[in-house]
Amino acid sequence: MCGEVQVPEDHLDVCRVCNATGQNCRVDETTQAGDGIENTDFVFYVSARQTERCHKGLTVAYAAHCQQEASLDRPIAGHANLCPDSISTKPQELHTLISTVKHEILHALGFSVSLFAFFRDDDGNPRTPRNPDTGKPHLNEDLQIHQWSNTTIRKITRQNWSVRGGHVNKTIDMMVTPRVVAEVRKHFNCDKLEGAELEDQGGEGTALTHWEKRILENEAMTGTHTQSPVFSRITLALMEDSGWYRANYSMASPLSWGRGLGCNFVMRSCKDWIQLNNAKGHSIHPFCSKVKQDPLQTECTDDRNSVALCNLIRHNYELPEKYQNFDSISNIKDGEEVYYGGSVALADHCPYIQEFTWRNKNVTIRGSHCHFVENNPKAEKNYALESYGQGSKCFDHGDAMWEERNCHHTREWQHWGSGCYRYNCSDGRLHIFVGNYSYTCYFPGQKLSISISANDWLHRGALICPSCEEMCGEYFGARDEECRLREEAPPLNKYPRDYLQCGASALSALYWYHQPIFLAIVSMAIVLLSRSRR
Question: Quick check: bond before 132 cis, omega within 30?
Fold first, then answer.
C-alpha cells in the first residue's frame, strides 16, 4: 500500500528482507520484480476516500512519501488522499481545490517533517549526520521521526514575547537553510531574521510540517486554508534547499502578507505590533481589533483582492496565556479580553482581516474574492452595485451605509463597509466603474458620491479612492508612464448622478451634464415629491 492506494504489482521491485537495523538485506526469493515505470522521477498515487483520518478536525486532504531512492534519499513515490465530504465543486472553489492538491504534492516531494532530516546541500552532502549503523539520520524516539541537524531546523527563543498583562518566553522552530533564510529576510525586510518559522500547533500532521500561520497567513504551505492561497518564493526556496530540485522562481506567486513590514512584525507578537502601531497612529494591518458582530462592517484585504472581515471573536473558553493578545478591547468589559482572539487558532489567535463566504443553512452561497464572477450578488441584493470578476478590486465605502430608495420605501443594508468594483488605469488616473458610470479619482481619500438608478431602485452611497500609485503604479510603470499629481477634484455635478422621479410627468430624466442651477432646483422638487409619496 502507498497511503490508501494498493500499488500495482508491476510497479514493484522484488522484496528485500533486512535485520532490525536495516542492514544485511537480502532478496526474498518468492517475489519477482515488476516492469516498473520508465523515464519517471516520481510516482504519485491519489485516492478520494472518506477515511477515519478525514474526520479528525477539519481535514481536507493528507499526503506523504512512500519510498526514497537509496543514493540521495530523494522521494520517488508518494500518495495523497482527498476527503470527499470536505471538497466543494463550486466554480469559485476550484482555485482552492487545485491549491490543495499542489499543497499535498509538495508534502510528498519534500515539505514534510519526516523528510527534513534527509535534506542535502548543493554538493549532495547530507545536512544531517548519518548513523553509521543504519546509514540514516538518528531517530527521535519521542517524535518517531528522523532528527534533523541545527543546520536545517533550529530552535530559537523569543524573550519578552508580549501577551496580556506582561511577557513570556516563546520557543519556536525555524527552517534555517540558506535559500529560505535569504528569501524570508528579503520578504519581511528584516536582515537579522534567523529563518522561516514553522507551525507549532495542530498536532501530528500539522505542527513542524507547515509554515507558521501568524507570519505567513495565506502562503499555501501553512496548515489551514483561509484565503487566496499562493505558493511563494519562500516555499520554492525550501524545496531547492532539500538538495533534490532546482526551483523556477518565475513560477512563484506574489505574497503580500507581511511583505516589507520589518523585524517588529515577524519577530514580535501580534500584540506588540498592534500596540506599537496604534501608539504611532499607523495602520495595524494585516492585524485588526474590531470585534466581529452585527452589523457586519467589512474591509478590504491589503492586496484589495477580497472583501474581508476582522476575525476577532469571543471564544467560549479562556484563551491560553500565550495567545491572549489584548489588554483592552473597545466596547468590551474589562477582564473579558481573555475570551477574545482571532478565530484561526494556528495564527496564535492573532485577529486579522480575512476573506469569508456567505452561507445559508451551512451551504455556501458565494464568496468575497473579487476575481470570481460567481461571487456577484443577485441583482435584488446588490445594494452597493458591486461587480465581481477579473479586473475587479475591493474599495472602501466610507463611514455611511449604502441605501436603496424608491418612491415608497427606503432601506439600508446592515452589512456594509467595502465592495468589489471594476477599475482601470488611464490618462495618469485611477477610474472606478459603478453600474454603467465611471468615476475618476484625483487624490487618495477622495470621497466619490454615488447615486445610480438600477433594478427599480435609486442606489446611494460612496466609495473612497485609494492612491493612484497603489492601484496603477505598476501598470503605468510598465508603460513608461506615471500617476499624475494630486489635484482638486471637480465639483459633484461633473460626476455621473441619477435622481429619483416619482410620477411627475413634467420632470424628465436628469443627467449629470445638466446645468448646476437646474439640477439644484429640480432635485429639490424631486425630494419633495418623493417625500409626499411615502
Answer: no
Q: Which helix (H) or strand (E) holds 26?
A: strand 26-27
CATH of residue 235's domain is 3.90.132.10
Give the C-alpha separation, 135 to 153, whole Å.
20
Q: How far apart are CA 362 and CA 492, in angstroms?
A: 44
| Contact of 533 with 502, CB cutoff 8 Å | yes
Count of domains in the chain?
Answer: 3
Q: Judge if the upstream peptide bond of residue 295 is cis by omega within 30 degrees of 0.
A: yes
120 part of a folded domain: no
Task: Tell me the residue length of the chain.
Answer: 534
Q: Which domain holds residue 93?
A: 9-109
210 is in an annotated binding site: yes
Alpha-carbon span 54 to 50, nearest angstrom: 6
514 annotated ligand-binding residue: no
pLDDT, one tens digit per residue, over 409-442 is 888 877 789 999 999 999 999 999 999 999 999 9
**167 and 72 assigned to the same domain:** no
Residue 273 · residue 188 · CB < 8 Å: no
Q: Is 397 annotated as a binding residue?
A: no
The three-class DSSP label of residue 235 is helix
CA nearest to 497, candidates 474, 481, 477, 518: 518
Catalogue the active-site residues. 104
How many CB atoms sit inside 10 A of residue 81's CB? 23
Closest CA to 116 of 29, 3, 210, 248: 210
Write the pLDDT tens digit of every residue in 494-518.
888 988 888 754 333 333 333 333 3
Q: Is residue 101 part of a domain?
A: yes
Give the H/E segment covering residue 475. helix 468-478
Backbone angles phi, psi at 287, to 5 degrees: -80, 170
